[in-house]
Amino acid sequence: MTNANATFTLSAFGDEIADDVETQLEVLNDLGIGWLELRKAWGTNVLDLDDSQVSKLREACSRHSIKVSCIGSPVGKSAIDEPIETVLADLSRILDIAETLSTGLVRVFSFYPPEGASQADYVDRSISRLKQMADMAAARGILLLLENEGGLVGDTPERCLALLEGVDRPGLSFVWDTGNFPHSGVSHAFDRGWPLLGSRVACVQVKDALVGDQTITVAGDGDGQIPELLVALRESGYGGFLALEPHLKVAGQRGGFSGPDGMRRAAEALRGLMTAAGCQETAIAGS
User: Considering Cα of 130, then 132, then 133, then 138, what sign does the dihedral take?
Assistant: First the structure.
């Protein structure tokens, strides 16, 4: 059954297309995607952009009639032993940038445990940090989105749930990355994870991967169970973004790259799956 309240708005990580911002935005215009996920601009991580670069980016987005959907920050993608003062200072800068670019969403991570240590032993410590981060963001009207990823404390559906339940703050929700669970070795990620996390999902990042050899693929060609996820999102009345993060040429700890053609392939694949699942894409204003 199609839920009339469900809306599916495509966004895309611009740095997956090119380093140059103008090229990023031109490709998004060509693809009919009106929202930019900001992780890097001109090859510089969002955390390292200065005020003049942020203003230049805002002006470029305005010229191309594109808005920033979410800040893909690197906060929390660091050692859990890093001083919390450093983490909060970085987050404060990211929140400044989010406000300047008029977005209320910021992606964060759950920290790396020491080498050789068990993630399970660091759940409580990650929760303590995420609580402080969520409170800081909520005080400024911004929602943090916790992303699942291998190697971090929040790598499996069960540990992601433990973190979210432990934090229990309105300033923290979950961003489901469709490729990261299988890339981390989680089989049947939707079957296993949706009953636990579905009610907490505020955003979805779209790529796909094979559990066996960790090959990154376009949506539908891997083990991420994206068709099943789309149906569940539709039936639940989902109202968030589907953010394209294909990683088709390069997939690394600090980002990925697909090129313009790769992003086109990724958009076509996702739109095909959306059509098959009965998902209606939100039209771009003025289109």
Answer: positive
Q: What is the DSSP string of 209-269?
A: E-TTT--EESTTSSSS-HHHHHHHHHHHT--SEEEE---SSEEETTEEE-HHHHHHHHHHH
Taking the domains of the chain in order of start, what are their residue ranges?
A: 9-276
- 98: part of which helix (H) or strand (E)? helix 84-100
pTM of the model: 0.94
Q: Which helix (H) or strand (E) holds 67?
A: strand 67-72
Q: What is the dihedral of CA 75, 76, 81, 82, to 10 degrees?
A: 0
DSSP state of 95: H
Instruction: Give the model confidence (pLDDT) of 176-209 as tens digits.
Output: 999 999 988 999 999 999 999 999 999 999 999 9
Which of the listed CATH numbers 3.40.50.300, 3.90.1170.20, 3.50.50.60, 3.20.20.150 matches domain 9-276? 3.20.20.150
Cβ atoms of 57 and 41 within 8 Å: the answer is: yes
Beta-carbon neighbour count of residue 30 at 10 Å?
12
Distance CA 49, CA 68 (A): 15
